[in-house]
Fold:
Amino acid sequence: MSEKKAFPEHVAIIMDGNGRWAKRRGFPRSAGHLAGAKNISRVVEAAMKAGVKMLTVYAFSTENWKRPEAEVTFLMHLIPRFCNRMLKKMMENGIRLRTIGRANDLPEFARKVLLDTIEATKNNTAFTLNVALSYGGRAEITDAVNAILNDPNRPQGALTEADVAKYLYAPDMPDPDLMIRTSGELRLSNFMLWELSYAELYVTQTHWPDFDAAALQEALDAYAGRNRRFGEVK
Ligand code: FPP
Structure:
């Protein structure tokens, strides 16, 4: 765990600032989300070229259900649009789609296309795109605890961290090495609370729809300059 990698294998991104990007241009917020969804494809391509193996993007949080109904509906309809638009690219480039979060919260029309796309791409091995949908870090830990309580084969006695980690949404995925947040806020916003424990954090003022290959490279360069100690003295 304490081996420093030259570039991060797994990058997590809080894709913030779609609304501000749109407002600055006099567009409705939905135009910002549309541009933001399109940008995922561009950043996946750049991440693959840079040698990153896995990207987790925060697309919809458990708190986002409290947004105005029209905005929630727009974001839900973006899910099938995004899957349909990305499928060809994912098949051509060996990209596997996954999700973390409470998939059962999603409307049926969105969940169906999502599950079909996950199934269609499940044997792709070059890159993993993991989309957090109806995701909350506390919800994930709570769901893990409930899954342990409901598992007749659960480990007996005091649980270890490794035991708990096995019940998270994607227990086979390595923890993110780097977490990028766009649009300047200095918060975790309930994102991957367990998995980001030792991640390097990088915040840029750039709004998500403007976050391009050069912006990603800046984040990777910043990561390369960090000294990861994992609590140890080197
Ligand atoms: C934050 O911007 C962004 C979100 C809450 C949604 C992120 C969603 C996407 C990038 C596209 C959705 C993709 C799929 C696959 C559904 P904000 O609205 O909070 O921006 P603001 O802080 O400037 O208002």
About this structure: The chain has a mean pLDDT of 95. Residues 85 and 127 are 17 Å apart (CA to CA). Residues 15-20, 33, 36-37, 59, 64, 75, 78-79, 82, 131, 183, 208 surround farnesyl diphosphate (CB under 6 Å). The two ends are 14 Å apart (CA to CA).
